[in-house]
Specification:
By secondary structure, the chain is of the alpha+beta class. It contains 5 helices and 11 strands. Helices cover 30% and strands 35% of the residues. The termini are far apart.
Length: 238
């Protein structure tokens, strides 16, 4: 009898603790929204339903593997299909929308100038890499004096070098600095730099090959003479 009462009391305590924990979580979320650290759910749902009209079935605030706060939203679309959408709770960006995700990255010329202050040399190539559910990063490779090369990752939103990402192996003094070349391109084409790489033509003349995502969603590839900064060629790409 005594054991039965103890078990009953323990079960009651567990039932009381669950709503208390939920209430604490809700209060933390409310404070974060009020402080501007998280977008309100109303704003999130308004944005999502503009893109995915339908009936919201379920909403859950969670964290992805990187610790980022995300809203997981289940929608019954007008065509009768169910769709689950993950949204960054801070920025309101749909996480499977690559174009929207990279729209908030720091300008590449600014990122490269900061990197080159720490690692003087010439940028050989750089690429914007963004996997679903993971922060976008720039992969940068630099040639330094003495024939050394440095490869590292840079957080595309903050411009900070990812700790522990640096790899050395082991200069090109005559090519135009890549940040200056990218400034020229971005002045002519409104968009985001996806990739830039130093290449050599059949005559061994160096040129930069730059891929740009334009504001209208199209991609173009631009070749720039690395010695003069002259635009050599532009090609459309799907």
């Amino acid at each position: 009898m005594i054991l039965s009462r103890r078990l009953s009391l323990f079960a009651t305590m567990l039932l009381l603790a669950a709503p208390t924990a939920a209430a604490v979580e809700q209060d933390m979320v409310r404070r974060a929204v009020e402080a501007g650290r998280l977008m309100s759910l109303n704003d999130i749902l308004s944005r999502v339903q503009q893109r995915y009209p339908g009936k919201v079935l379920d909403v859950e605030l969670d964290r992805d593997p990187s610790g980022r706060r995300i809203y997981e939203i289940k929608i019954l679309q007008e065509n009768g299909r169910r769709k689950e959408v993950q949204v960054d709770a801070v920025t309101g960006l749909v996480l499977d929308d690559r174009a929207a995700e990279i729209a908030v990255v720091m300008p590449l010329p600014q990122v490269l100038r900061a990197v080159l202050e720490r690692y003087p040399g010439h940028v050989l190539d750089v690429e914007l890499d963004q996997n679903p559910g993971e922060p976008a990063v720039y992969e940068v490779r630099i040639a330094q004096a003495g024939g050394r090369q440095v490869e590292l990752l840079v957080d595309a939103r903050s411009g900070q070098i990812v700790p522990g990402s640096e790899l050395r192996s082991g200069t090109l003094q005559w090519v135009k600095p890549l940040p200056d070349v990218l400034d020229l391109i971005l002045a002519l084409y409104r968009g985001v730099i996806l990739e830039a790489e130093l290449e050599f033509g059949k005559d061994d003349r160096p040129y930069y090959e730059v891929e740009v995502l334009l504001a209208d969603g199209r991609k173009i590839e631009i070749h720039v003479d690395a010695l003069t900064g002259e635009l050599l060629r532009q090609e459309g790409a799907e």
